[in-house]
Specification:
Blueprint lengths: L1 E2 L4 E7 L5 E7 L10 E4 L10 H7 L5 E4 L18 H15 L5 E5 L1 H12 L7 E4 L22 H19 L1 H12 L3 H9 L8 H12 L3 H12 L4 H4 L6 E6 L7 H10 L3 E6 L6 H4 L1 H12 L8 H10 L1
Length: 322
């Protein structure tokens, strides 16, 4: 465990199967609230989406950011099958236990929404608020590049991915050493970035230095890890959890999101009692780095009722780590 002057603690946390998880805790003396926000990434991500969010909220709350198995600085399990949504939900609890927090605000982007919901399924008493951004609650490949309008016929791209992935998955796993070379070579070029800028994100609102780290991380990621996580993600459903959520929940949706259409988030909003919906008409799947000010101010308002709360046990636990 290492610590720098800015009260940022980096840790490697052991799981029951021996996989080491990377996590960092940012705790500023000026933080008004001692309930941490734990950030859950999308698939293949190691934190690029949270750049502005962390900078804004670290003065208000402790921030915990961690890497999934096989992502970023976390280890890859010896058994590839030990990567998946259920493991991620349990790993999140280990992270909180390690830093000594009894409760946390669950915040997820993209796949991180389903990770957050899985964690809530396990311990609903532990999470006083949820922030769910640009992510589905089940079977995301069914909605990836689907029609932005409910009940429209799925797009050809959606049908191709939905039908093709189950067939290509075993081939990638079996011959991953061949696919890895192609994967790393392609993602290290400028082509994926340019395609994303023209077809996936709002290029008028996104900065290259904010978005490029995603491709850099993805190019260095083992492809068998990516497809194993994608398989688990695509087969995962948290629908049963939604009606159990009785905590205030903020849902953030982009009107131009090609990964998770807005109507999915509308369904989430209608199903989760005591939820609020922030709709960003020109927001895409990368809304947190396209519209940081809007999201920060709306999130700050959502979290304001917590600012009067204080947990002495949390302070003591943090002091013990220091």
């Amino acid at each position: 465990m290492s610590q720098n002057r800015n009260l940022e603690i980096h840790s490697k946390i052991d799981t029951p199967d021996g996989t080491g998880l990377f996590a960092r805790l940012i705790r500023m003396p000026s933080a008004k609230n001692h309930i941490p926000i734990i950030l859950n990434d999308g698939l293949g991500c190691n934190g690029f989406i949270w750049k502005h969010f962390i900078e804004y909220f670290k003065a208000q709350h402790p921030i915990i950011h961690w890497h999934y198995r096989g992502h970023g600085h976390s280890d890859t399990p010896e058994q590839i099958q030990n990567i998946g949504m259920e493991h991620a939900g349990r790993d999140l609890e280990l992270i909180l236990d390690h830093f000594g927090y009894d409760e946390a605000i669950l915040c997820g982007h993209s796949m991180g929404v389903q990770v957050a919901l899985e964690a809530y399924r396990n311990r609903p008493d532990r999470y006083p608020r949820l922030i769910l951004m640009c992510g589905s609650y089940e079977y995301p490949l069914l909605h990836w590049h689907n029609s932005p309008i409910r009940h429209r016929r799925p797009t050809w791209l959606n049908q191709m991915i939905s039908a093709g992935f189950p067939r290509i998955f075993p081939l990638i796993q079996k011959y991953h050493f061949v696919w890895q070379s192609l994967w790393s070579l392609l993602l290290s070029t400028d082509l994926p970035y340019q395609i994303a800028m023209y077809f996936e994100v709002n290029r008028k609102r996104i900065e290259k230095e904010d978005f490029l780290p995603y491709f850099k991380h993805l190019s260095s990621m083992p492809i068998e890890v990516f497809v194993q996580m994608l398989k688990s993600y695509s087969e995962h459903s948290a629908r049963a959890v939604l009606e159990q959520i009785d905590k205030p929940t903020l849902i953030i949706s982009g009107g131009q999101d090609t990964f998770c259409p807005h109507w999915i988030l509308e369904d989430l909003h209608r199903t989760v009692e005591n939820s609020e919906l922030l709709y960003i008409p020109d927001g895409t799947h990368c809304a947190p780095i396209e519209h940081p000010e809007l999201i920060h101010l709306r999130t700050e308002k959502f979290l304001r009722p917590l600012h009067s709360r204080r947990s002495d046990s949390t302070i003591d636990a943090y002091t013990a780590i220091r």
